[in-house]
Design a protein that fits this description.
- It is a single chain.
- By secondary structure, this protein is of the alpha+beta class.
- The chain contains six helices and 22 strands.
- The strands form four sheets. Strands 3, 4, 5, 6, 12, 13, 14, 15 and 16 form a nine-stranded mixed sheet that branches. Strands 1, 2, 7, 8, 9, 10, 18 and 19 form an eight-stranded mixed sheet that branches. It has a three-stranded antiparallel sheet with strand order 11-17-20.
- The longest helix has 25 residues.
- The radius of gyration is 20 Å and the shape is globular.
């Protein structure tokens, strides 16, 4: 039985970095915001914020979190071990910001949620189970009696991560570049807990691995490989596929973070994308309250262009592996050609001057 329908200015589905950030920003602009999330624990992961992402961190008002040693640790740069045994360096001192940060995702998200609550955001422990033809979202309460709720909003934000639960229920297709999995292979604590560290990565045949050191000396080693039979030696396994929606916004809704576009971890853009997409979407909603079809189209085109430029950089990283140099995506009913890809965002991939961007990226139809 569905209880009486509720209404709010903005309904955010998902309480990860993108969802909590856009909820807080909208609340600071005077909007009534509800965040619905089933309350599942976040994956215990360390993630890199590159120097290029720090301007966005400041724009969303979160730079103080990076000063908390329990949340973030300075990163000197990225070291890539070649097959010859030599190392390539991407030294962050060469960037105007001169440093990056390794963030503890669990603690970072906890702080984001606290900041959102302080701004007036209401959090409810609900799981989205469907959408209605008139724009409503159906939820089931997590735990307890499992009451079904129906909510309406002037704008619904899909921040459900790689599932893109709201967008896909509205008929949007999810394009998958490669089905990849990231596996946590080792966890340790380093006695040198406060010094800045490097992020190291290397190829291991058709797989690649990286070693990352975070707050409190906590360190992790991750392996990224093609999806397949589960590995018995992995401590944790998470989806690492590169994905993008065929449309990232529409009438009454918009997708942010991993729901709109998700990256291979080698791009080191996940957290940056969560914050930057939340910032852009907030600007759109504050300026117009409702997203026009033209705004939705432009936003979707920007999301797709960002995805393709990131994939162009990823091709260069994988050029000596078995990964194809052509990109196949499910985005439409026809094969089409995309124009020259823009420069990828600064990330874990090779230095900018060494990147080779393909002149055309082919998009083919697949069933996902």
């Amino acid at each position: 039985m569905i209880s009486a329908a509720g209404r709010t200015d903005c309904l955010v589905v998902g309480a990860g970095p993108a969802g909590a950030t856009i909820a807080r920003l909208l609340a600071l602009k005077g909007r009534d915001v509800i965040v619905a999330d089933p309350g599942f624990p976040s994956a215990n992961r360390l993630e890199l914020l590159s120097p290029a992402s720090l301007a966005v961190v400041a724009l969303v008002g979160l730079e103080q979190l990076l000063d908390d040693p329990a949340v973030a640790r300075r990163c000197l740069g990225v070291r890539r071990r070649q097959s010859t045994g030599n190392w390539d360096y991407e030294d962050f001192l060469r960037h105007p910001s001169r440093t990056g940060y390794v963030v503890d995702r669990v603690r970072f998200e906890r702080q984001l949620r606290s900041a959102a609550v302080a701004a007036g955001v209401k959090f409810v422990q609900w799981r989205a189970t469907g959408v209605t033809a008139d724009g409503g979202v159906v939820f089931r309460e997590s735990g307890g009696a499992g009451t079904t709720e129906l909510m309406f909003a002037n704008m619904v934000v899909d921040a459900t991560g790689r599932r893109a639960a709201i967008a896909r229920r509205r008929g949007v297709r999810l394009a998958v570049r490669d089905r990849m999995v990231a596996e946590l292979m080792d966890m340790s604590v380093n006695a040198v807990a406060h010094n800045a560290s490097w992020l190291d990565y290397w190829s291991n045949g058709s797989n690649w691995c990286y070693h990352i050191c975070g707050p409190g000396g906590y360190a992790q080693i991750w392996r990224v490989r093609a999806s397949g039979k589960p590995a018995r030696d992995a401590l944790l396994s998470v989806d690492a596929s590169s994905t993008v929606l065929s449309a990232a916004a529409g009438e009454g809704w918009i997708a942010v973070g991993d729901a709109a576009i998700a990256f291979d971890p080698i791009a080191s853009q996940g957290l940056f994308n969560a914050l930057s997409s939340a910032l852009v979407a907030t600007g759109m909603l504050v300026s117009a309250d409702q997203i026009s079809l033209a705004m939705a189209r432009h936003y979707s085109e920007a999301v797709t262009a960002t995805f393709l430029s990131s994939e162009a950089g990823r091709i260069n990283v994988y050029k000596n592996s078995s990964v194809p140099r052509r990109i196949g995506l499910t985005v439409s009913d026809r094969t089409q050609s995309w124009p020259d890809a823009a420069e990828p965002f600064p990330s874990m991939i090779a230095p900018v001057q060494d990147r080779q961007v393909p002149s055309s990226v082919e998009i083919t139809t697949l069933d996902v």
